[in-house]
Specification:
3 domains, 5-stranded parallel beta sheet, Rossmann fold, binds acetyl coenzyme *A, 17 strands, alpha/beta, 543 residues
Length: 543
């Protein structure tokens, strides 16, 4: 199976239409990652040269529908396939158009085609063909394999009413979105923009508070990564146009500042936004934008609690419980038992996650309880706390009153730092002793439940970090309800810890406890089962 491949289709467009699902299915059996699609009907009766591969092809409404079908089918037939339909040579005017060669980023190691003529050229002179392909597309692997599609293109085509009229294109096209985890819906949207644009495409990419209204916004990719993917997509499929990414913080973005825009491309979901944009432009005395609406792509694998369309929020939900980033190399800690640190903001559901993990067989070390132990009467930490905070933090039995101590330290960051410097080393020592105890009993996985594990720098104590989180507003609500604190006090406690985003950035696995227990349980189950694959002895992995 190739990671990336190039599919050159030479059939007349009318032949292709009903066969797209079959073609995509066949291609997905040979390519697992990116599939670049080049529609080149002109190649049928011409030699394979740089010119014939880039021969201009008319952008008709039929072509537009066909391209949409590729994305729709791709998402149905193989939702993991990254389809990119190449458009540099598709144009509204054959006589004046100068296509630009592609510069595709992924190394292509399989060439798929419906063309027997191309197969003949391959058999006759593979080296020259690879040279030509390299010039037109770049990144063709020297070891590229050729595969003639099995799809029967000679079968009778069910005639459907297709419009052959030439597509109207525009000098300046604009589109907007979050473009998080660039998916088939985004690709269709951007592909459509590229098809309609013949000079400059402005892509507004949301950032800041606007993103915070979205489900699991904490998992939205950083702006720079989203911009990079959008730019890569556009420059790959249509290298001849100017591509301008712009950060946007509202529903208007550049449509409010750029009078020269001509066309806006929106999805069925955002078409109301286009209406608002035109109303605003009218007020500003700017020209009205032509509005092009594209359909949403159905998500064939969505579950009951996910949207029925392909969506970034479903993708983010599916990330919960999975390994988000590679594991750190920890040669300093013994391989067994495998150590997981479960950290998480106040009232984020750590204990619930840990009790689920316990049911699976993990040994839980509750660092909060170790904290109680660390400063019982008579310990070094006990005396150090009295020295720093005075006798007023003691109860009638001369034990440290945690509630009183809490009200002092959560109102003064420097005092919290002092407390931490006293108790963290003591808790850490006790935690190591418990791990050793579990090692002797043959435990395979120990879980260090520690709210501020990352803040304490204990990441180096564990093989991987899992984080639990809920949105800030939900954490406040829970703390007010659970701990009987005021909203302000709850906020102070939350602010004494790193933010969800900072914690997630440093964690390998993330669990969100915002919904019913069952939803959290499923995330933990997924995380546990993926963990088993990771920690299987190497020999078992090979089986
Ligand atoms: C590295 C670790 O995570 S060890 C485990 C956490 N313990 C510590 O850091 C030791 C210092 N903390 C303490 O001694 C106590 O938490 C006190 C005295 C500050 C407060 O005690 P209590 O009023 O009984 O509150 P409690 O211990 O239940 O903590 C309340 C919340 O404060 C947060 N919290 C605890 N310690 C800290 C800290 N050092 N910094 C920031 N937040 C903290 C926790 O998130 C906890 O909520 P959670 O149980 O939902 O996660």
């Amino acid at each position: 199976m190739a990671r990336s491949g190039l599919l050159i289709l030479t059939q007349p467009l009318s032949h292709l239409k009903s066969l797209i699902p079959q073609v995509v299915k066949e291609a997905s059996e040979s390519v697992s990652g990116t599939l670049y699609i080049c529609l080149q009907p002109a190649l049928q009766d011409r030699h394979v040269t740089q010119d014939s591969l880039l021969q201009p092809v008319l952008s008709t409404q039929e072509m537009q529908m066909l391209i949409r079908d590729f994305y729709m089918s791709g998402s149905k037939v193989c939702h993991t396939l990254d389809i990119r339909v190449l458009l540099s040579h598709i144009c509204p005017n054959l006589s004046t158009f100068q296509p630009v060669a592609y510069s595709l980023k992924k190394k292509m190691s399989v060439l798929l085609s419906d063309s027997v003529a191309l197969q003949d050229v391959w058999n006759d002179d593979k080296i020259s063909l690879v040279d030509v392909l390299q010039t037109v597309f770049k990144n063709i692997s020297p070891d590229i394999q050729f595969q003639l599609l099995n799809t029967n293109f000679s079968q009778k085509v069910t005639s459907s009413q297709t419009s052959l009229s030439v597509l109207r294109t525009f000098p300046n096209v604009v589109v907007g979105g979050t473009f998080d985890y660039l998916h088939a819906g985004h690709k269709l949207l951007l592909n459509e923009c590229c098809l309609l644009c013949d000079q400059k495409l402005t892509v507004g990419i949301t950032d800041g508070d606007r993103n915070k209204k979205k489900v699991l916004w904490e998992l939205i990719e950083p702006y720079a990564d989203r911009e990079k993917e959008v730019v890569r997509f556009v420059t790959e499929v249509k290298p001849g146009i100017i591509m301008e990414p712009v950060k946007i913080f509202d529903a208007f973005g550049p449509t409010k500042t750029d009078p020269n825009l001509d066309c806006i491309v929106v999805s069925q979901e955002t078409k109301e936004g286009a209406k608002m944009v035109n109303e605003e432009r009218l007020k500003l005395g700017f020209s009205q934008l032509e509005v092009v609406v594209i359909d949403l792509i159905d998500d064939v694998c969505h579950t009951d609690d996910e949207e029925s369309k392909v969506s970034s929020s479903s993708i983010r939900k599916r990330l919960l419980g999975t390994l988000l980033r590679p594991l750190p190399y920890r040669p300093n800690i013994p391989k067994t038992p495998y150590r997981i640190g479960v950290s998480g903001g106040i009232a984020s559901g750590k204990s619930n996650v840990c009790s689920e993990l316990e049911k699976f067989g993990a040994k839980i070390i509750n660092c909060d309880l170790l904290g109680h132990k660390a400063y019982v009467k008579g310990t070094d930490a006990y005396h150090a706390i009295i020295k720093e905070f005075g006798h007023s933090v003691l109860d009638d039995n001369k034990e440290i009153n945690r509630r009183l101590l809490g009200s002092v330290v959560f109102n003064d960051k420097s005092k919290l730092t002092t407390l931490n410097s006293i108790v963290w080393p003591a808790i850490q020592q006790l935690a190591e002793e418990e791990i050793e105890f579990h090692r002797k009993t043959g435990a395979t996985v120990v879980v260090l439940e520690a709210a501020v594990l990352i803040e304490a720098g204990w990441d180096s104590m564990v093989h991987e970090i899992w984080a639990t989180f809920v949105p800030r507003e939900e954490a406040i609500r829970r703390v007010v309800e659970r701990n009987g604190l005021s909203e302000t006090e709850a906020e102070k406690r939350i602010d004494s810890q790193i933010s969800n985003v900072e914690r997630i950035e440093k964690s390998n696995v993330v669990i969100c406890s915002l919904w019913e227990y069952e939803v959290t349980r499923r995330q933990v189950q997924k995380a546990w089962s993926l963990l088993q694959d990771r920690i299987k002895p190497a020999t078992q992995n090979k089986l």
